[in-house]
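A quick word before the example. In earlier lectures we treated sequence and structure as two separate objects. From today on, think of them as two lines of the same record. Here is IP12434p written that way.
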Amino acid sequence: NMKYTLVVLALLAPLTAAASLGEQKPEANAFVKSLRELHRGPPVEPMKTRAKVEERWITQKLDNSDDSNNATWQDRIYINNKYFVDGSPIFIYLGGEWAIDPSGITSGLWKDIAKQHNGSLLYTEHRFFGQSIPITPLSTENLAKYQSVEQALADVINVIATLKQEDKYKDSKVVASGCSYSATMATWIRKLYPEIIRGSWASSAPLLAKVNFKDYMKVVGESYATLGGQYCYDLIDNATSYYENLFEIGNGTQAVKELNLCSNFNVNSEQDRWQIFSTIANIFAGIAQYQKPEKYDIPTYCSILREFSDDDSVALSKFINWKINEHSGACLSTTFKGAVGYYEWSKENYQDSDLPWIFQTCSEFGWFQSSGSRSQPFGSTFPATLYEDTCEGVFGAKYDSAGIHANIRATNDDFGGLNVNATNIYFVQGALDGWSKVGAGVAQGATIIPYASHCPDTGSISASDSAELVASKKKLIKLVAQWLED
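And the structure line, produced from the sequence above:
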């Protein structure tokens, strides 16, 4: 057996060497994965035809707010000029906290409107996402200096200025659109640069920065009750209460076993407990966020959930494990240290990193989706403090609770929260979108689409659209024509 042992040791040796050098990639734990799912780019229709989309790299200033800093970097954009006639308008689709993809400007409503106006379609990548990395490492110091919505908006304005040096674009008017955080950008770019941007379409734009965003999970719960049925809401509610109770009565090891948590989970750590319950809620939120009522996404997931077991707590555990690890049988890793460690590691290893967005939540927006509302089925074990502690753990003492609250106040002072105070912006909200609670409402002139969720109106007008959705899309088509005429 000696020979066999040596072979095994020889195989293990490279692993231990790599680990000791700190090259071993820590796993993105279940919490990290569940957050990533909530901030993925909006789903796009698959390309029906291969449109010729051109990839270009635009030279940007590292610091748009400092004239004396001459450092530059390369920002990726995509251009679809299939319908473009020289001098016609530029239709920008703003990239948010995701990697941009050519299919974002080859299908959908914005493409349809651009085509009507012989427009050029442009998709911009936000600094620090995808392949547009202005500086490494992603240290707190670098992110604090260079990652902000103001810097990103100035980048977009520079893209426009760069293109307008070409004859074919010099007379082009510009309109902007976005979904989710990039709809926030679409709103604020019109507010800050009204002489450059004729108008903006903001689909599901969060506008009011907020630390304890407790209404979000309330709306997620409502969407399960409304679309999945009361049985589905109750199942989640019962199962969550069951596991919360196990921890409360000191029976955490039982909960760990039944939820299939990895052995690194510390039953005595409040932060670990917060994290598992936050992860469960995030998984259900990820499904609800991009659900399409006509596709029956939520009812389908609710039946899968129920089919796992007649016992609510068993059903929930199997469902969560399936959503995170498919059928791999791996345990669920959710520890506070694991999440902080993963983000720490990301500072030096930044491919597809979530870190720059996590940073913006700590430095500008908050939007910590907590269990603070009593009217939701995910229990009461993930306060906003979980996210505040994560900010401080990853970015240091300046990003403690007091620091975050000050940052959020500054954002609302700068941009006005729900009082946008700008013209030519079309706001759309899904009535069952948690983000709508920090977005424009009826009072701000928003169009609300019943039963719809996040960014519900980005696709072309189709037979499966509700009457309200069709009306909203037609209204946008009219408005864009007006913005371009004026």
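Notice the following. The chain has two domains: 53-208+419-485, 211-411. We will return to this example when we discuss secondary structure assignment.
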